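sorry for the late reply, my laptop died twice this morning and i had to redo everyting from scratch. anyway the thing you sent over, i finally got around to it. pasting the sequence first so we're on the same page, its 200 residues, then the predicted structure underneath. double check i copied it right bc i was rushing
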Amino acid sequence: MNRLYFVFGLCALIMCSGFTIKKKRPKLHKIFNGKNLDGWKAPDGNIWWTANKGILTAKSGPDKKGSILWTNGEYEDFIIQVDFKFGEGTIDSGIFLRTDKQQIQIGESGSLKRDLTGSPYIPGKGYPVEASNVQKLLKMTAWNTMKVEAKGSVYTIWLNGEKVLTYDSDTAIEKGPIGLQLHPGRDMRIDFKNILFAEL
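ok and here's the structure:
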Protein backbone atom coordinates (compact mmCIF):
# COMPACT_ATOMS: atom_id res chain seq x y z
CA MET A 1 0.00 0.00 0.00
CA ASN A 2 2.84 2.38 0.90
CA ARG A 3 4.42 1.65 -2.48
CA LEU A 4 1.16 2.56 -4.25
CA TYR A 5 0.97 5.88 -2.41
CA PHE A 6 4.59 6.53 -3.34
CA VAL A 7 3.88 5.95 -7.05
CA PHE A 8 0.81 8.22 -7.01
CA GLY A 9 2.76 10.86 -5.13
CA LEU A 10 5.64 10.72 -7.58
CA CYS A 11 3.27 11.06 -10.55
CA ALA A 12 1.59 14.06 -8.93
CA LEU A 13 4.96 15.67 -8.23
CA ILE A 14 6.07 15.22 -11.84
CA MET A 15 2.85 16.74 -13.18
CA CYS A 16 2.93 19.66 -10.76
CA SER A 17 6.56 20.47 -11.49
CA GLY A 18 5.80 21.03 -15.16
CA PHE A 19 8.11 18.21 -16.18
CA THR A 20 7.54 17.14 -19.75
CA ILE A 21 8.99 14.26 -21.67
CA LYS A 22 10.48 15.47 -24.93
CA LYS A 23 8.96 13.88 -27.97
CA LYS A 24 11.47 12.18 -30.20
CA ARG A 25 11.90 13.95 -33.50
CA PRO A 26 10.61 11.80 -36.33
CA LYS A 27 13.20 10.13 -38.52
CA LEU A 28 13.43 11.59 -42.00
CA HIS A 29 13.30 9.14 -44.89
CA LYS A 30 13.99 9.48 -48.61
CA ILE A 31 11.08 10.32 -50.91
CA PHE A 32 13.26 10.58 -54.03
CA ASN A 33 15.07 7.39 -54.98
CA GLY A 34 17.65 9.12 -57.19
CA LYS A 35 16.85 6.99 -60.25
CA ASN A 36 13.36 7.93 -61.45
CA LEU A 37 10.21 9.81 -60.48
CA ASP A 38 8.51 6.96 -58.62
CA GLY A 39 6.45 8.41 -55.76
CA TRP A 40 5.90 11.67 -57.63
CA LYS A 41 3.27 12.86 -60.12
CA ALA A 42 5.14 13.83 -63.26
CA PRO A 43 3.25 16.41 -65.34
CA ASP A 44 1.71 15.35 -68.65
CA GLY A 45 4.26 15.37 -71.46
CA ASN A 46 7.07 15.75 -68.96
CA ILE A 47 10.20 17.29 -70.48
CA TRP A 48 11.15 19.33 -67.39
CA TRP A 49 12.00 16.83 -64.64
CA THR A 50 14.72 14.20 -64.92
CA ALA A 51 16.42 11.90 -62.42
CA ASN A 52 19.98 10.64 -62.80
CA LYS A 53 22.65 9.43 -60.36
CA GLY A 54 20.89 10.78 -57.27
CA ILE A 55 20.07 14.18 -58.77
CA LEU A 56 16.61 15.52 -59.62
CA THR A 57 16.94 18.23 -62.27
CA ALA A 58 14.30 20.78 -63.22
CA LYS A 59 15.06 22.53 -66.51
CA SER A 60 12.98 24.94 -68.56
CA GLY A 61 11.61 23.75 -71.87
CA PRO A 62 11.80 25.76 -75.09
CA ASP A 63 8.44 27.44 -74.43
CA LYS A 64 9.35 28.30 -70.80
CA LYS A 65 6.01 26.92 -69.70
CA GLY A 66 7.01 26.01 -66.16
CA SER A 67 5.98 22.95 -64.18
CA ILE A 68 5.26 21.52 -60.72
CA LEU A 69 6.33 18.08 -59.56
CA TRP A 70 3.92 16.89 -56.84
CA THR A 71 4.20 14.05 -54.36
CA ASN A 72 1.71 11.22 -54.82
CA GLY A 73 0.71 11.43 -51.16
CA GLU A 74 -1.17 14.15 -49.29
CA TYR A 75 -0.08 15.24 -45.84
CA GLU A 76 -1.12 17.32 -42.84
CA ASP A 77 1.83 18.08 -40.54
CA PHE A 78 5.29 17.23 -41.88
CA ILE A 79 8.94 18.07 -42.36
CA ILE A 80 10.54 18.15 -45.79
CA GLN A 81 14.26 18.67 -46.29
CA VAL A 82 15.96 19.15 -49.66
CA ASP A 83 19.44 19.90 -50.91
CA PHE A 84 19.40 22.28 -53.86
CA LYS A 85 21.95 23.84 -56.16
CA PHE A 86 21.46 26.70 -58.59
CA GLY A 87 22.22 25.94 -62.22
CA GLU A 88 22.25 28.28 -65.18
CA GLY A 89 19.73 31.07 -65.76
CA THR A 90 17.61 33.12 -63.37
CA ILE A 91 16.54 30.67 -60.68
CA ASP A 92 12.93 30.99 -59.53
CA SER A 93 11.78 27.85 -57.74
CA GLY A 94 10.23 26.81 -54.47
CA ILE A 95 8.50 24.23 -52.31
CA PHE A 96 4.69 24.16 -52.33
CA LEU A 97 3.05 23.22 -49.02
CA ARG A 98 -0.23 21.29 -49.49
CA THR A 99 -1.32 23.61 -52.33
CA ASP A 100 0.15 25.88 -55.01
CA LYS A 101 -1.12 28.86 -52.96
CA GLN A 102 1.46 28.34 -50.17
CA GLN A 103 5.10 28.43 -51.29
CA ILE A 104 8.54 28.72 -49.73
CA GLN A 105 10.71 30.52 -52.27
CA ILE A 106 14.00 29.24 -53.63
CA GLY A 107 15.86 31.80 -55.71
CA GLU A 108 14.84 35.13 -57.17
CA SER A 109 11.37 36.60 -56.87
CA GLY A 110 10.00 37.39 -60.31
CA SER A 111 8.07 40.37 -58.94
CA LEU A 112 10.71 41.87 -56.65
CA LYS A 113 13.77 40.94 -58.77
CA ARG A 114 15.89 39.81 -55.82
CA ASP A 115 16.67 36.59 -54.04
CA LEU A 116 14.07 35.66 -51.42
CA THR A 117 15.12 32.10 -50.65
CA GLY A 118 13.41 30.83 -47.50
CA SER A 119 10.58 33.38 -47.59
CA PRO A 120 6.90 32.41 -47.98
CA TYR A 121 5.06 33.55 -51.09
CA ILE A 122 1.29 33.76 -50.67
CA PRO A 123 -0.86 34.90 -53.64
CA GLY A 124 -2.61 38.15 -52.77
CA LYS A 125 -0.07 38.90 -50.03
CA GLY A 126 3.19 38.60 -51.89
CA TYR A 127 6.00 37.98 -49.41
CA PRO A 128 4.39 38.84 -46.04
CA VAL A 129 7.67 38.23 -44.17
CA GLU A 130 11.23 37.69 -45.30
CA ALA A 131 13.69 35.06 -44.10
CA SER A 132 16.59 36.47 -42.09
CA ASN A 133 20.34 36.18 -42.69
CA VAL A 134 19.92 34.46 -46.08
CA GLN A 135 22.52 36.58 -47.88
CA LYS A 136 25.16 35.26 -45.50
CA LEU A 137 23.94 31.65 -45.49
CA LEU A 138 23.07 31.02 -49.14
CA LYS A 139 25.74 29.43 -51.36
CA MET A 140 25.26 30.54 -54.95
CA THR A 141 27.59 27.95 -56.53
CA ALA A 142 27.39 25.01 -54.10
CA TRP A 143 24.77 22.77 -52.50
CA ASN A 144 22.39 24.25 -49.91
CA THR A 145 20.05 22.48 -47.50
CA MET A 146 16.56 23.78 -46.77
CA LYS A 147 14.33 22.24 -44.12
CA VAL A 148 10.65 23.18 -43.89
CA GLU A 149 8.37 22.21 -41.02
CA ALA A 150 4.64 22.66 -41.66
CA LYS A 151 2.69 22.22 -38.44
CA GLY A 152 -0.88 23.34 -38.89
CA SER A 153 -0.69 26.89 -40.21
CA VAL A 154 2.83 27.51 -38.85
CA TYR A 155 5.81 27.19 -41.20
CA THR A 156 9.36 27.08 -39.82
CA ILE A 157 12.28 27.28 -42.22
CA TRP A 158 15.96 26.41 -41.79
CA LEU A 159 18.67 27.20 -44.36
CA ASN A 160 22.00 25.40 -44.08
CA GLY A 161 21.27 24.50 -40.45
CA GLU A 162 20.14 27.94 -39.25
CA LYS A 163 16.53 28.87 -38.54
CA VAL A 164 15.65 31.80 -40.79
CA LEU A 165 11.89 32.18 -40.42
CA THR A 166 8.71 31.22 -38.59
CA TYR A 167 5.44 32.27 -40.21
CA ASP A 168 1.81 31.64 -39.27
CA SER A 169 -0.25 31.60 -42.48
CA ASP A 170 -3.92 32.44 -42.08
CA THR A 171 -4.62 30.94 -45.52
CA ALA A 172 -2.93 27.57 -44.92
CA ILE A 173 -4.99 24.49 -45.75
CA GLU A 174 -5.19 21.36 -43.63
CA LYS A 175 -3.97 18.67 -46.03
CA GLY A 176 -2.43 18.30 -49.45
CA PRO A 177 0.60 17.19 -51.48
CA ILE A 178 4.07 18.75 -51.52
CA GLY A 179 5.40 20.23 -54.75
CA LEU A 180 8.65 21.40 -56.28
CA GLN A 181 8.37 24.31 -58.69
CA LEU A 182 9.91 25.24 -62.01
CA HIS A 183 8.64 28.76 -62.55
CA PRO A 184 7.15 29.68 -65.94
CA GLY A 185 8.69 32.43 -68.03
CA ARG A 186 12.23 31.50 -66.99
CA ASP A 187 15.17 29.93 -68.80
CA MET A 188 16.76 28.11 -65.88
CA ARG A 189 17.95 24.88 -64.27
CA ILE A 190 17.96 23.83 -60.63
CA ASP A 191 19.15 20.54 -59.13
CA PHE A 192 17.78 18.76 -56.05
CA LYS A 193 19.08 15.78 -54.10
CA ASN A 194 18.65 14.10 -50.70
CA ILE A 195 14.92 14.84 -50.56
CA LEU A 196 13.89 13.70 -47.09
CA PHE A 197 10.50 13.65 -45.39
CA ALA A 198 8.70 12.79 -42.16
CA GLU A 199 5.10 13.12 -41.03
CA LEU A 200 4.61 14.73 -37.62
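The chain is about 10% helix and 40% strand.
thats about all i looked at so far, will dig more tmrw
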